[in-house]
Design brief:
heterodimer; A: 114 residues; mainly beta; seven-stranded mixed sheet; four-stranded antiparallel sheet; 11 strands; B: 112 residues; six-stranded mixed sheet; 0% helix
């Protein structure tokens, strides 16, 4: 099984502060994803990556940026956190090298913006 | 854009009874469809997928799903529910080659 580690697992921050969430995989999977989970909305795709320095936007990308400088790490940054970004964030990888297929998810990062 | 809809926020079923969790899809072309389950305070886990072939797909933990093209549905089923099946279930569809789009989720509650 692919190992996925998200950090931090819990964070409380204040409005206007920058926040970075990290997703680390132990295998060299090409595709990595950031989703947010909110009641009534299910999972919504924020950004995804299909290789080092190759990223694209998802459904709810406003207010978020990502970076992937190494295959194993995919960073999600909130430049200036807002209360609407309070959510649980999940990182995922695709075990297919040709696109989205079976995704393996991390344990999640719960972010609270006060 | 591809999408899936899960019309029920919650499904309640007694242990031992059959269960169905509904999902309908809207896609152009042939759909790639998935079911995932989320237990409390955990990430999502893959249950099963339909890409092509047999309309009845079997997956993990005794779950199966029936692909129905005429009704654009991909309902999740299990012949006999267990209390331990209580969880949040998500249907998903592949959009393009690179993305999975998820539904809003259905909470399954199995009562003893």
């Amino acid at each position: 099984d692919a190992g996925i580690t998200q950090s931090p697992r819990h964070k409380v921050t204040e409005t206007g502060t920058p926040v970075t969430l990290r997703c680390h995989q132990t295998e060299n999977h090409r595709y990595m994803y950031w989703y947010r989970q909110d009641p009534g909305h299910g999972l919504r795709l924020i950004h995804y990556s299909y290789g080092v320095k190759d990223t694209d936007k998802g459904e709810v990308s406003d207010g978020y940026s990502v970076s992937r400088s190494k295959t194993e790490d995919f960073l999600l940054t909130l430049e200036s956190a807002t209360s609407s970004q309070t959510s649980v964030y999940f990182c995922a990888i695709s075990e297919s090298e040709t696109g989205a297929n079976v995704l393996t998810f991390g344990a999640g990062s719960r972010l609270t913006v006060l | 854009a591809q999408s899936v809809a899960q019309p029920e926020d919650q499904v309640n079923v007694a242990e031992g009874n059959p269960l169905t969790v509904k999902c309908t899809y809207s896609v152009s072309g042939n759909p790639y469809l998935f079911w995932y389950v989320q237990y409390p305070n955990r990430g999502l886990q893959f249950l099963l997928k339909y890409i092509t072939g047999d309309n009845l797909v079997k997956g993990s933990y005794g779950f199966e799903a029936e692909f129905n093209k005429s009704q654009t549905s991909f309902h999740l089923k299990k012949p006999s529910a267990l209390v331990s099946d209580s969880a949040l279930y998500f249907c998903a569809v592949r959009e393009g080659a690179d993305k999975l789009i998820f539904g809003t989720g259905t909470r399954l509650q199995v009562f003893p």
